[in-house]
Structures are given as C-alpha cells and as structure tokens.
From TrEMBL:
Subcellular location: Plastid, Chloroplast membrane
Annotated organism of origin: Heracleum sosnowskyi
A GO MF term: prenyltransferase activity
Listed name of the protein: Homogentisate geranylgeranyltransferase
Membrane topology listed for this record: Multi-pass membrane protein
C-alpha cells in the first residue's frame, strides 16, 4: 500500500488487466513518497516533472478491494483495485488563509458594520445635496468628498470600539459574538485599535484643513466618549434621554449640517444656504436616529437590567417602546409624503411619494411579523430599521 506524503501528487486511473492494477503518480520536483513499510523513495531533484510508474500486484478480483488510507491534508477517492485519486490540499496555505479570514471577520464585527454603512450612505447623500448640475461632480468634488468620508469612518470605528471596551461584561450577555466579549480580542488590542483610529481620524481632520470636517469629528468624539466612558457625569448610555440626545446630535445634526457646509463652502466655493432638502434631511433623520436610539435597547433588556442601564425598554417595557418606534417612523414617512407631493418637480414628486409609500408598507408588514419574545426576531427587525435608514438617505437627494 502506498501512502502519499506530498500535496502535489496527482494519480491517474489506468486500464487494469485482470487480477492486476496499475497506479501512475505524477510527481513534481523535491517531493518523495513514503511506503507503508517505512522505506522512503529517493527524492527527485530535477526541475522538470518526472513520472514515477509503480505497478503493484493486487489480489484476485474475487477479493475485497483495499481502500487507500487517508492522510492529513489529503483526500483519496477510489480503491487500489481500480486506482485512486489524490486531491491536493496545501495545509500551510489553508491555515494561513483561515487565520487571515478569522482576523478580518473579527475586525468586521468589532467595527459594527451597520453603523459604518450608515456613515458612508449618510455622508454621501448629504454631499450630493449642494450639487446643482453634473458639472459640480468634478474630481475636486470627489476629493473633497473623500476628505469628509475617510476620517469619519475612522471616527465611527473609534466610537463603536470605545463602547465595546466599556461594555465587555454587558456584551457577554447581550452580544457575545463581539470580539472583546468572546475573547478573540484582548483588552490591550481593543485599546490599541480604538486609539489608533481616533488619532488617525483627528490627524486627517487637521491635515485636510476643513473646519466643518474637523468640527464634525470633534463633536462625534465628544458625544461618543460621553456616551460610553465610565467617569463622573459621563456614561450617558445609563440615561435613556442623554443616550438618545448623543446619537441624535451626531447622526442627525452634525453629519447633515457639517458635511453639507464642507461641500458647499470648501469644495464648491459657494455661500452657505439652507435648501429645502437639507431641512427635510435634518428633521427626518432626527426622527430616524431617535428610533434607532430607542430600539437598539429592546433586545438588550436582560443585560441592561443586570448592569443598571435604565433604558426606555427597561423602564417602559419592550412592547411599548417597540410600537412607539413604529409610530415615530410612520409619522416621518407621512411628513415625507406631504413634502414630496408638494414638490414642483414631477420627477422628484414621483420618486419621493412612491419611495416613501413603499418603505412605509415594508415597515408595517415587518412590524406585524416580529415576535417580541424572541430576541433573534427583534434583532432582525432592528437591522431592518437600519436598512430603512439607509433607504431614507438615498431618497433625500431627490427632495427638491
């Protein structure tokens, strides 16, 4: 019986005469075979591919076929009576790829991707509001857009990472899949990542020389830190009202006003104005961020109650907060329908009215299918709210 000790072997099945099988093994340079009796074939050290043919005597066709023994990292198919196939697999490469994937996946979860996507879509939408013609979409515009986007993503990672540093014990109950809560990341590594992204964000804010961008980063830093840090007068997440205010100030007020001003004044070189679309975006996104601030605590009731976090869900109950959030979103959609229907541009009117009717219908259908007793169902609906949040930002540029 032959045992292959190289991942690059490929065996071909040949036509066998009765009572005898033939195995042909393709072998690349610097490889060797090891036989079952412990002897080792001579290593082949030529650059070209050599073919080693081994003819083995197999028992008569009336005997049971002997199956090839499977070795680590290799898969054998077939039997020695009819030949076998070795499927190559590089163990070291597989291990490296697995380690790399695990690191990427851990950082992906650490960065809380739904918040990063919200930042990207929000800044993109607001940056398009000052655009009045295709000529505005110049290379300078896209450079200015990236100067706002990249440091904002880094600050987003700082904020969500800081929250995880101070919420490790709570997350072990509410979100055990996060890297710090699961033990994939040490506290030292978490602190290093948070510090690095915070510093890179501020460094870019200074380097890009745009006061609105730097101001937005500073506001995000201050409110994000106040929300999470365990210090006197801070740790605002313990108070439902302060938690909602901190999220609203960053997502609805700062993102909309600061980045609109950045594009309008420092990229396009125009005086600051407050167009209808910007006013609508600020009011509508304020309602959405309020809902996100309230709803995110619904599936976290157990951990929040255990650690003294007095969220609205803990104080009022999950069901009341759930339907309060649905009511706020329906009011936001009704307002959007009125504003869209009053537009003097037919295309804008059609997009905003049809779009918001569709989103409102989706919201109502999903809300009635949620099982508040099942945290997985509630969490799934919470992610649906984030998708509605993204969709709203996509519709905002059409409000004219």
């Amino acid at each position: 019986m032959i045992q292959a000790h190289d991942n690059s072997f490929v065996s071909r099945r040949l036509q066998n005469p009765p009572h005898q099988g033939l195995i042909t093994i393709l072998q690349r340079p610097q490889r060797h075979l090891k036989f079952s009796n412990g002897s080792t074939a001579q290593k082949l050290s030529v650059r070209s591919v050599n073919i080693l043919a081994a003819t083995l005597s197999i028992s008569s066709s009336h005997s049971k076929p002997t199956r090839a023994k499977k070795l680590p990292g290799q898969t054998f198919c077939g039997t020695l009576e009819h030949g076998f196939i070795i499927e190559p697999k590089d163990d070291e490469l597989t291990i490296l790829q697995g380690d790399l994937w695990r690191k990427i996946d851990a950082f992906y979860r650490f960065s809380r991707p739904h918040t990063v996507i919200g930042t990207i879509i929000g800044i993109t939408s607001v940056s398009l509001l000052p655009v009045t013609s295709l000529g505005d979409l110049s290379p300078a515009f896209f450079v200015g857009y990236l100067k706002a986007l990249i440091p904002s993503i880094f600050m987003n990672i700082y904020v969500v990472g800081l929250n995880q540093l101070f919420d490790v014990e709570i997350d072990k109950v509410n979100k055990p899949n996060l890297p710090l809560a699961s033990g994939e990341y040490s506290m030292g590594l978490g602190k290093a990542i948070v510090s690095a992204f915070g510093l890179m964000s501020f460094a870019m804010g200074v380097m890009f020389q745009s006061p609105p961008v730097f101001f937005a980063l500073l506001i995000c830093f201050l409110f994000g830190s106040a929300y999470s840090v365990e210090l006197p007068l801070l740790r605002w997440k313990r108070n439902a009202f302060l938690a909602a205010i901190s999220i609203l100030m960053v997502r609805a007020i700062t993102v909309n006003l600061a980045f609109f001003y950045h594009i309008q004044k420092y990229v396009l070189g125009r005086p600051m104005v407050f167009p209808r679309s910007l006013c609508f975006a600020t009011v509508c996104i304020s309602m959405f961020t309020t809902v996100i601030a309230l709803f995110k605590d619904i599936p976290d009731v157990d951990g929040d109650r255990d650690f003294g976090i007095q969220s609205f869900s803990v104080s009022l109950g999950q069901k009341r907060v759930f339907w309060l959030c649905i009511a706020i979103l329906l009011i936001a959609y009704a307002s959007a329908l009125v504003i869209g229907a009053s537009s003097s541009f037919l295309f804008s009117k059609l997009i905003t009215v049809i779009g918001h009717c569709t989103l409102a219908s989706f919201l109502w259908h999903r809300a009635n299918s949620v099982n508040l007793e099942d945290n997985a169902s509630v969490t799934s609906f919470y992610m649906s709210i984030w998708k509605l949040f993204y969709a709203e930002y996509l519709l905002i540029p059409f409000v004219r």
